[in-house]
Here is the input.
Amino acid sequence: MEIKGAVAVITGGASGIGESVARTLAGLGAKVVIGDRDAAQLQRVAEAIEAAGGQVAYAKCEVTSDSDVADLMDLAIERFGSLNICVAAAGIIRDGLMLNVDRETGKVKKAMTTEQFKMVVDVNLVGSFITIREAALRMVNNGYKGLLVPISSVNKAGQTGQMNYSSTKAAIALWPKILVGEFQMRGVQGVRVVSIAPGYVGTPMVKGMNQDALGKILEGVHIARLIEPEEIANAVVFAAQNEAMDATCLEITGGLIANGLAK
Ligand SMILES: NC(=O)c1ccc[n+]([C@@H]2O[C@H](COP(=O)([O-])OP(=O)(O)OC[C@H]3O[C@@H](n4cnc5c(N)ncnc54)[C@H](O)[C@@H]3O)[C@@H](O)[C@H]2O)c1
Here is the structure.
């Protein structure tokens, strides 16, 4: 796929990985539509893209809302006449142990609430599902060549303290195979699915993590630093440009080999 002239919709486009994907694609001549629930930050990113000479539209979008996401996709088609790349980058963390057991008494001090589990599932899993579905159905119905990019994580392997988050990312890593299987079954050509599983990226999400835990995790990262958001954005570009990339989950981890927090 040619990036120049392609139309890309990015959720979570007001920060971190989504912002970087939007700026990178716009810098290469794509027309980008960004959605996020943070309207002020969305405007900041859109203004930066325009100031750099890029083409951008944006709308406040809550990814758990069917109608918000549908409207975002329609905005791309109305404004730019197509929809070729969809990156579902909106996501949250609400870390914690399922059972926080007191080291002295051996009794449970606190348990992860159902709300804490569901909140992450709603945004990361249900929100990404709605985003990918609404983009895919427009690509298929209009015969647009497309690439769908849901965002997984290296923590799909099962990160201590992230029962909620890791569950969503493990599921998303399976979507490229599931979706390409159904496209193949029904003769849908031209819409590819590649999920991206980043390691630890220097975004506000990670900067807001427990910094002691992050320091321990970085000890297991071969490149010995956080990944830059642009390094993830470049992988989206690579996946778009290479038709052979399909039905796979691409790990970009900086060589993270140890998983799990210190005791
Ligand atoms: N940063 C990392 O190390 C890392 C690693 C692996 C995967 N990821 C994934 O990459 C994606 C982006 O993460 P990031 O680090 O850029 O985070 P971030 O916090 O910098 O950005 C996330 C954006 O999503 C938006 N958002 C959150 N909930 C939303 C909702 N319900 N509706 C609409 N917008 C919503 C936020 O407002 C924010 O602008 C997430 O799915 C995250 O799980 C991040």
